[in-house]
Write a structure and sequence with these properties.
Blueprint (H helix, E strand, L loop, with lengths): L1 E5 L3 E2 L6 H19 L3 E9 L3 H10 L3 H18 L6 E4 L3 H16 L3 E11 L4 E3 L17 E10 L5 H10 L3 E3 L1 H12 L5 E2 L1 E3 L6 E2 L2 E6 L1 H6 L1 H4 L7 H7 L4 E5 L3 H14 L7 E5 L2 E3 L2 E2 L10 H18 L8 E3 L3 H28 L13 H16 L3 H22 L1 H7 L1 H22 L4 H10 L32
Parallel strand pairs: 1-3, 1-13, 2-3, 3-4, 8-14, 13-14, 15-17
Antiparallel strand pairs: 5-6, 5-7, 7-9, 10-12, 11-12, 15-16
Helix pairs in contact: 1-11, 5-6, 12-14, 12-16, 13-14, 13-16, 14-16, 15-16, 16-17
The protein binds 5'-O-[(L-methionyl)-sulphamoyl]adenosine.
The site of 5'-O-[(L-methionyl)-sulphamoyl]adenosine has 17 residues, from β2, α1, α7 and β13.
């Protein structure tokens, strides 16, 4: 099966922070999971580089805007590399391939008869790059950016979004477009049921945007430019076969603040140009740090690279995803990372692996012990079932909970059977226990690999199981050499 998964394309007015890293790591875990299951995956990440916000930031930085974009896009590319993100492509909206595809899209939209011109007066928030209804403001300010939107009066092109309510509602209620979590789906449905307004699709000559092919005084509204990246990357207008292979997107991972763009505006635009709509949109919650929104002024912005330096890439991925249920809002207590690293990683899977491997090596000639014990088999079989169900519905933190239960079951078996003393009286019984602990480690390494790609590959190599990726029980063979294992999660160097 094909699986096309995307992250939002981030504004590059600044360096990436953990709010950006969060959805990107999540998408990577899901992409790796689907590859492991044998799906053919296309995983897209990228940057949104047009718009007033970027132009102003470049100006403030005193750098020509093209140069500013190149420099800042590189920050994102480097950060994703450091976090071991396996995106198959990295799209930038200033690339020629994208500008060409977007112009085709805009023309198609115009030809569909769904656009019209009108003089418009409204309040524009540059932070959101969108117009705001007065009812959406708090004390006259954008609740997300804390700034007053600017009054704008100009002639614009409009898209007849108001005509799409029924079709959108139908798509969502029939399951053609799945929106998760449930709370987000309900919110989108009630927004649609209140009646949709038409939306502007152009701005009057923004200095840093794509000019409309049929109106040289108007530039394409950045959100249309950005949303279309998902089509560009799989060959829209250039390679029909490739486009047909990958389209539609199987899963858009987005933040809840941009869910409306992805579940209402985007599908309606696709309907207008006669393309199929995304199968699923999953909206993540928003992060706060120590109870506060991350902001430069507060000085609490966490750079993911600082976490990678302290904890390594694997642990950083784990620490971010294990904080709270995926899809909920959550608070990051950066101070708790050290404790979670120690209890969940070093003393969790790390300690279990070192103990089991050291005991086996010591008592069974540096090899996998035998005969094949199987008391853990039913626990592993049940865990796989729950694990698949969790990841099929983007339960990234839930899947970690299932893995933790398996680790606990292994620890309990060790405490119960005490293989280090059992071996003195009953070699075969001790061998059976150590065998099944090694086999359980192999399963754990497979379940954890999407989250912890480097350390789990290391564990599998140690077990001599590099190519043993079957989820069936009993794949390890007694007598196979068992290498020494360096600590998977070493003590943190201060
Ligand atoms: N360029 C648009 C997306 C276009 S997708 C076709 C955009 N960019 S953004 O950089 O402002 O935000 C992108 C995503 O990052 C959003 O989903 C947003 O939720 C996420 N985050 C940005 N700051 C965040 C936090 N503080 N916490 C969690 N996620 C946050 O919108």
């Amino acid at each position: 099966m094909k699986f096309y998964i995307t992250t939002p394309i981030y504004y590059i007015n600044d360096r990436p922070h953990i709010g950006h890293a969060y959805a990107t790591i999540a998408a990577d875990v899901l992409a790796r999971y689907h590859r492991q299951r044998g799906d053919e995956v296309f995983f897209l990440a990228g940057t949104a580089e047009h718009g007033d916000k970027i132009a102003t930031s470049a100006e403030k930085a005193g750098v020509p805007v093209e140069e500013f974009c190149d420099r800042n896009a590189q920050y994102f590319i480097d950060a994703w590399q450091a976090l071991l993100i396996t995106n198959d492509d990295f799209i930038r909206t200033t690339q020629a391939r994208h500008e060409a595809a977007v112009k085709l899209f805009a023309t198609k939209l115009k030809d569909s008869g769904q656009l019209y011109e009108k003089d418009y007066e409204g309040l524009y928030c540059v932070g959101c790059e969108s117009f705001k209804r007065p009812s959406e403001l708090a004390d006259g300010k954008c609740p997300d950016h804390g700034t007053e939107p600017q009054p704008v009066k100009e002639r614009n092109w409009f898209f007849k979004l108001s005509e799409y309510g029924e079709r959108l509602e139908q798509a969502i209620t029939s399951g053609e477009l799945v929106i998760e979590p449930e709370s987000r789906r309900n919110e989108m449905l009630s927004f649609i049921r209140q009646g949709l307004d038409d939306i502007t699709v152009s701005r009057h000559n923004s200095p840093w945007a794509i000019t409309l092919p049929w109106d040289s005084e108007q530039t394409l509204y950045v959100w249309l430019d950005e949303l279309f990246n998902y089509c560009t990357a799989v060959g829209y207008g250039v390679d029909d076969e490739r486009f047909k292979k990958w389209w539609p997107v199987d899963l858009h991972l987005v933040g809840k603040d941009i869910a409306r763009f992805h579940t209402i505006i985007w599908p309606a635009l696709l309907m207008a140009i006669g393309e199929s709509i995304p199968k699923k949109v999953f909206a993540t919650g928003l992060y706060t740090v120590d109870g506060q929104k991350m902001s430069k002024t507060l000085g609490n912005v966490i750079n993911p690279l600082d976490l990678v330096n302290r904890y390594g890439a694997d642990a950083t991925r784990y620490l971010l995803l294990s904080q709270f249920p995926f899809g909920n809002d959550g608070d990051i207590k950066a101070a708790s990372f050290d404790a979670s690293y120690a209890t969940e990683l070093a003393n969790g899977i790390g300690n279990l692996a070192s103990r089991v491997i050291a005991m086996s090596r010591k008592n069974f000639d540096g090899a996998i012990a035998g005969p094949k014990g199987n008391t853990l088999e039913p626990i592993i079989i049940a865990a796989w079932k729950e694990y698949h169900a969790a990841l099929e519905s983007c339960g990234l933190e839930a899947a970690l909970g299932i893995i933790k239960k398996v680790i606990t079951a292994c620890d309990q078996l060790i405490e119960q059977k005490q293989p280090w003393s059992l071996v003195k009286t009953d070699q075969a019984a001790a061998g059976a226990v150590l065998y099944e602990l090694c086999e359980a480690l192999r399963h754990l390494s497979l379940m954890l690999e999407p989250y912890l790609p480097t350390t789990m590959a290391q564990l599998r190599t140690t077990l001599g199981a590099t190519n043993l990726d079957s989820t069936d029980w009993g794949q390890l063979e007694p007598g196979t050499p068992l290498a020494e294992l360096a600590p998977l999660f070493p003590r943190i160097n201060e």
